[in-house]
């Protein structure tokens, strides 16, 4: 499962950002254990980023081959009506949903646990943004 891109620095940066408020352990034994746990977390985050990249690449390739599938793609199941008419509409609706979900999480609202998973919304937004920028060119190339 080798990736042509090195995602390790991104994984470490994401983890460091998430752990920003956690104080460093003071004793040597705890520091050693924390170092091992950090390394395991970095590897896990890197694997998740590689899998996410592969999922997005596969979804983009499939949608280029079958453009009509964009509107009913699994990434848009969470949208109101589960149908994205254009990539612009999908991006704006996903932005709205991401803002609302972050507010729910920040406020500790009970619906944050049952609502859409934030990373899946961000992944769907990445998919829609790719097609907003490159979809017309890709579909024209396929049609030719």
Word description of this protein:
The chain is an all-alpha fold. The protein is 69% helix and 0% strand. It contains five helices and no strands. α2 (28-65) runs parallel beside α5. The chain is flat, with a radius of gyration of 19 Å. The mean pLDDT is 84.
Coarse shape: flat
**Helix-and-strand structural type:** mainly alpha
Number of strands: 0
Share in β-strands = under 5%
| DSSP helical segment count | 5
Overall mean pLDDT stands at 84
Order of helices and strands: HHHHH
Low-confidence blocks of residues: none
Q: Evaluate the radius of gyration.
A: 19 Å
Helix fraction, binned, reads 55-70%
Reported for the largest beta sheet, the result is: none
Cα end-to-end separation? 33 Å
How is the secondary structure organized here?
Layout: H1 8-18, H2 28-65, H3 87-107, H4 111-114, H5 118-143
TL;DR of this structure?
The protein is mainly α.
Q: Which descriptors would you attach to this protein?
A:
mainly alpha; 144 residues
């Amino acid at each position: 499962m080798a990736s042509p891109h090195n995602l390790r620095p991104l994984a470490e940066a994401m983890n460091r950002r998430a752990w920003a408020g956690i104080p460093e352990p003071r004793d040597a034994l705890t520091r050693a254990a924390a170092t091992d746990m950090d390394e395991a977390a970095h590897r896990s985050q890197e694997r998740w980023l590689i899998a996410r990249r592969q999922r997005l690449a596969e979804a983009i390739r499939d949608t280029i081959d079958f453009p009509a599938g964009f509107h009913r793609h699994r990434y848009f199941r969470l949208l109101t009506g589960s149908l994205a008419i254009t990539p612009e509409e999908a991006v704006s609706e996903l932005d709205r949903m991401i803002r609302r979900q972050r507010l729910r999480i920040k406020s500790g609202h009970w619906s944050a646990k049952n609502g859409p998973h934030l990373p899946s919304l961000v992944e769907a937004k990445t998919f829609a943004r790719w097609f907003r920028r490159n979809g017309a060119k890709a579909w024209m190339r396929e049609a030719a």
